[in-house]
Amino acid sequence: MPELPEVETTRLGLLPRLQGRTLKQLVVRNPRLRWPVPDDLDLQLAGLTLKGLTRRGKYLLFDFGPATQIVHLGMSGSLRFAAPDEPAALHDHLDWQFDDGTVLRLRDPRRFGAVLLTDDVAQHPLLAHLGPEPLTPAFDAAYLHAQCQRRGTAIKQVIMDARVVVGVGNIYASESLFHAGIRPATAARRLSRPACARLTAAIKQVLAAAIAAGGSSLRDYVHSSGELGYFQLQTRVYGRQGLPCKACGTPVRRIVLGQRATFYCPVCQR
Ligand SMILES: [Zn+2]
Fold first, then answer.
1. Span 126-162, pLDDT tens digits
2. Is 260 a catalytic residue?
3. Which of 31, 44, 181, 182 fits as disulfide partner to 37, beta carbons 3.0 to 4.6 Å?
């Protein structure tokens, strides 16, 4: 599943080629994504210039001035540049054709992705209740500590809750807790302020490293330049059940929290 680092890497790959380009046509081959693609999308957007491309959580926001297109890659979506004469494959559901011949193509075999339109990003129901971005100063120890004090659930589930903070997926949650020395099942309200400081720092560090490495999670994910090959994150605990902890040699344990596989070192994380 594309996680925040993959989405951010995609955004950074698309922006220089798309910003300032005028949309000539939007071709929808299959509108049946997670929610139906609005059928007047081409009518609304053709002729408009892309002013910017930002991200909120895992949502890409295409700023066309009067309207913003919200794009989510779901479980298996990817965006790439296609050659102008390149035929669409089975799962290529949508094309953005720009005035300079650039074609941006959405592929989504499982169709859990979304392409929607809004004139009010801040109030859109998918975005209005999202917590802060993990890489901004708003996500700090004081904020996380306040959120934790209100919650008795496991800290791993709290940091994966998009209302608390966006973009901390399953791999990144396990890895961040390892770096912070915190056990994933610890009740959130038992975390001290210094522990929250270590955890916010670890989340920022793990996500920034993954963005720098170009994302990590989906094998068939296609980079926005068209080439295959996101790097697999060098994990410290995730997926390493029974293998020696890279810090202390103790076998890494696997538990299930909130129905998600969770990995930790029983010695390094107390
Ligand atoms: Zn260890």
1. 999 999 999 999 999 999 999 999 999 999 999 999 9
2. yes
3. 31
CA distances from 166 to 39, 41, 71, 153 (A): 30, 27, 16, 17
User: Is 175 marked active-site?
Assistant: no
CB 86 within 8 A of CB 226: no
- Selecting among 56, 58, 80, 198, the annotated active-site residue is 58
Catalytic site includes residue 204: no
What's the gap in Å between 166 CA and the centre of ligand 1? 27
- By CB atoms closer than 10 A (0-12, 13-18, 19+), residue 264 is buried
CB 255 within 8 A of CB 237: no
* Annotation says 133 is catalytic: no
3-state secondary structure at position 218: coil
CA of 265 to the centre of ligand 1 (A): 5
Cα dist. 124→44, 129, 194 in Å? 18, 9, 35
CA 124 to ligand 1 center in whole angstroms: 43
**H-type alpha helices, 125-260:** 141-149, 155-159, 170-180, 193-213
Q: What is the pTM of this model?
A: 0.88
Asked if 60 and 167 count as a contact pair (C-beta separation under 8 A), the reply is no
pLDDT in tens, 221-266: 444 444 433 445 678 999 999 999 999 999 999 999 999 999 999 9
